[in-house]
Amino acid sequence: MNQSIHFTVRSPLYWLYAAFAIGILLVGGLAVLMPLTASALFGAPVKVADGIDWVRIAGVRDIAIGLMFAAMLVLREGRTAGVLMLLVIIVPVGDAFTVLSTAGVTYQVFLHGVAAIFMAKLGSLLVKRS
């Protein structure tokens, strides 16, 4: 079956995936350009100058993931986009545990958890419908 039939600009799943890709790119850009602000929003504020590099590394990671997601949009690879999203769930889960271990139960742990649940649902729908 031709995957591009289901994963086009006419599909709500396409736009949900696009919004998520843009969000990841913006979060990554914030971490690279404004690491102190990004670390606070992430849920693990950096308190020493040495930590800024790690925030930037995480930002580059997020930019790379966002670009991979964007490539799936351009190529209209719905099933591959879904599989990729399911594989990348490890990132917000790891982020949630990192925040939990450094700051305890916070709003940011909830946000990382919601991101993982959203990714699981969207990824599953894309795999199933493509």
Which features would summarize this protein structure in a list?
about 130 residues; mainly alpha; 6 helices; about 0% strand; elongated
How would you characterize this protein structure?
The longest helix has 26 residues. The protein starts with 11 loop residues before the first helix and ends with a helix. Helix 1 packs across helix 2, helix 2 packs across helix 3 and helix 5 runs antiparallel to helix 6. It has one domain. 79% of the residues lie in helices and 0% in strands. With 130 residues, it is mainly α. It is elongated. It contains 6 helices and no strands.
Q: Secondary structure elements and their pairing?
A:
Elements: H1 12-33, H2 35-42, H3 50-75, H4 78-87, H5 90-103, H6 107-129
Helix pairs in contact: 1-2, 1-3, 2-3, 3-4, 4-6, 5-6
Largest sheet: none
| Binned strand content | under 5%
In total, the number of domains comes to 1
Structural class: mainly alpha
Distance between the termini: 8 Å
**Share of helix, binned:** over 70%
Instruction: Indicate the low-confidence ranges by residue numbers.
Output: none
C-alpha Rg (nearest Å) = 16 Å
Summed up, the helix count is 6
User: What general form does the structure show?
Assistant: elongated
How do the SSEs run, as a string of H and E? HHHHHH
Give a count of the beta strands, DSSP E runs of length 2 or more. Answer: 0
Oligomer: single chain
Report mean pLDDT, rounded to a whole number. Answer: 93
